[in-house]
User: What shape does this take?
Amino acid sequence: MEVELFLERYQYLMNDQGHRQVVRNGHRPLRRIVTGAGPVEIATPRIDDRVLETQQTPRFTSALIPPYLRRTKHVEELLPVLYLKGISTGDFREALQALLGRHVIGLSAETIVRLKSVWQREYAQWQQRDLSTSRYVYWWVDGIYFNVRLDTDRQCLLVVIGATADGTKELLAVEDGFRESAESWRSLLRDLKRRGLPQGPAVASGDGSLGFWVALAEEYPQTTPQLCWVHKTANVLEKLPSSLQGKAKQLLHDIYLASTRREAEDAWERFVVTFAEKYPKAVACLTAHRDELLAFYATPAEHWPSLRSTNVIESTFATVRLRTKRTKGCGSRIATLAMVFKLVQSAAKRWHRLRGYQQIPDVLNGVVFQDGVRVDASHRCTTEPVGV
Assistant: This one.
């Protein structure tokens, strides 16, 4: 179907004799690909589309079977997923044969033993990489808990994902921590500085309960804190009866979905007036961090959806959390770190570039934004406010 659509798109290209210049040209040699259904030999169609080079038009490439593919992406992630779930190396042969068939090459129980040490070395090298040429406009931070079979305490991984100067999201740090203490985060941030990152991001987004904020104020005081509205909403709602949570949730949405900070503050006051008398704990939970919750209004409006929550971390680790919730987890702390590192590397391939990345240079250069719109030196908006 890919080929048929491609040929149809360029059917108008004819030579002097009236023959099409983009046509089928047989098949490529058989290629063996390991899939979730076992190994499959595929002969991909070949197209004679050389004429497109003269027009500087991209030639045909299959999205289903890209060049050099040997394993589908799901199989590529299979081994670290199974190990993270708690399957022992002795059970790998049976599990892999049931999933992929009896004749799969290179996916055996012995493979996981070799790959574990390889992944741990890769993680150690990645953890010491040079950051002197890196610059991040935003960070998303969180503490993720896992079960470890050979440890009595649950392991807490401190995770930092950053948005680079071109809007690409990448894993910046994943390290072992003691719960989510300020000392653990302080150690992580100092290590980033040691490896060449003297300047923090413009804005860091995370849960308000993290010890990260204490460490951030000490190590990168120029960074603006932005608390996650998803976490804050959950914290506020748990202090209200279930019969009122629907109404309260809508009022909270009115705050952080407002198109200007003035409108957000008006919605904020409506929430306070509605619940202050009977539910002061819910109101206190919200009002304790007013500036940190509304900080995103001083950034480009296109960046607001990304900054208002730590969804980039939550969505990445949701599946990992589900897999480890009812299992004993990995055998050791370093094994957990290595497996999580490999899983996040795979997930990062599907992360989208930051929307509105063209405005990142302005943010990095300290240009002032008011209600999502760039303002000039006299603090007047250059364009009309952008709604979200």
